[in-house]
Amino acid sequence: MDQKTVTDLHLSSADSSPTPxxxxxxxxxxxxxxxxxxxxxxxxxxxxxxxxVQDVGIRALACLAEVRDxxxxxxxxxxxxxxxxxxxxxxVHPRFSAAxxxxxxxxxxxxxxxxxxxxxxxxxxxxxxxxxLNDHEFDIVKRHxxxxxxxxxxxxxxxxxxxxxxxxxxxxxxxxxxQIAADIALCHHEKWDGSGYPSGLSxxxxxxxxxxxxxxxxxxxxxxxxxxxxxxxVEQSLQIIQDGRGSHFDPDVVDAFVNSLDDFAQVxxxxxxxx
Length: 275
Fold this sequence. Notes:
By secondary structure, this protein is mainly α. Helix content is about 60%, strand content about 0%. The chain has 14 helices and no strands. The model is unreliable at about 10-40 and about 65-70 (pLDDT under 50).
């Protein structure tokens, strides 16, 4: 299945997700900066990290808000769960252990919801088209990878300036997570054989998080219902992904997927758009 066809399958979803509780940035930062009454260091670290991730996500959306609003929903929930399943399966694999050790597995999973944030910059007429895209429309869609990565980087810079050096250092792991998010946004449409976009990266040059998201995104596109197609059975989706082993997808990621297929199927049912 070519990249344009896969994009057509998942592009026009209209999902919705609950609005997160928003921390007051001024109050949170002031509390953390005070010498007395400060929470224990581990509590402060969690609050600081949570604040940065939340604030950058909001600011990244704001960077593109002038173009159009965009809603994300169960696609984000499912793909996050799929990436987590793949990462857990690959944690002890010699090719992936270094990239997933320590907090990095959790960072990759946490970063996945921002993978398609750049679609806010795709015009409604293209993004919401109830059918296949023509070549010109597909070229427009391809821009979302770079738009999303750029928005996250811009937001990181804004939050660093807002927080100051002390809190920025304290929240280093959160900024590392957001860098992973930018990498995933930019590279999750790259292909193992170098035929993807936007940069034509191949093999291990593609960040691990993006390789995991590439498979998760396609599986969700195949198994989700769209205006112009029913959900594809898991068995048929499995065959398409196996056909892409070594061309579209990292072969070891495909093997991890095959070994986790029952768990993938359970996630697809539990978080179905019809639920």
